[in-house]
Write a structure and sequence with these properties.
This protein is mainly β and 149 residues long. The protein is 0% helix and 52% strand. Strands 1, 2, 3, 4, 6, 9 and 11 form a 7-stranded mixed sheet that branches. The chain has a 4-stranded antiparallel sheet with strand order 5-10-7-8, with no helix packed on it.
């Protein structure tokens, strides 16, 4: 039987993400998405993070200038073998929301945006053991839920 994922929500009262594929983030042409030396993309798009990071909290990747509406949810799914990741968004180069994922096993993160703005989506190492072994199977966004009166 497959282990249920560890769920990380911000705000904590947020709805648990449904098992649907989030929409992909698209890096702007003038700010291509770079990957840390310990990260690589598998042919299926999975992001494999494996090795000793430059620093325990160094960036793995950043996708800049993502216009996200208030209520939009950033979704990240993956698996921690060892180490961990920080999943978050920057607003004006400061963390607007983030969560540290370090518990081994499958995980899903859902961060709900408080305000409409252009965010930078960040995956950073959370590898205080000095080594990281994490797989990211999905990183994207879901539009705000529509409320019908």
């Amino acid at each position: 039987m497959e282990k249920a994922p560890n769920v990380y929500l911000s705000p904590p009262s947020g709805a648990a993400p449904r098992p649907i594929q989030p929409r992909a983030f698209v890096a702007p042409a003038d700010a291509p998405q770079l990957l840390a030396p310990i990260a690589r993309r598998a042919p299926d798009g999975t992001l494999i993070i494996k090795g000793r990071p430059e620093r325990a909290d160094s960036y793995i990747t950043m996708i800049e200038d993502q216009p996200l509406e208030s209520g939009t949810r950033l979704i990240c799914r993956g698996f921690v073998q060892r180490g961990g990741v920080t999943v978050g968004v920057l607003l004006d180069n400061h963390w607007a929301k983030s969560v540290n994922v370090a518990t081994p096993g499958p995980f899903v993160v859902s961060l709900t945006m408080d305000t409409t703005a252009k965010y930078s989506v960040v995956l950073a190492n959370f590898a205080y053991s000095g080594y990281n072994d994490v797989t990211i199977s999905a990183l994207g966004w879901l539009p705000p839920a529509k409320h019908n009166p």
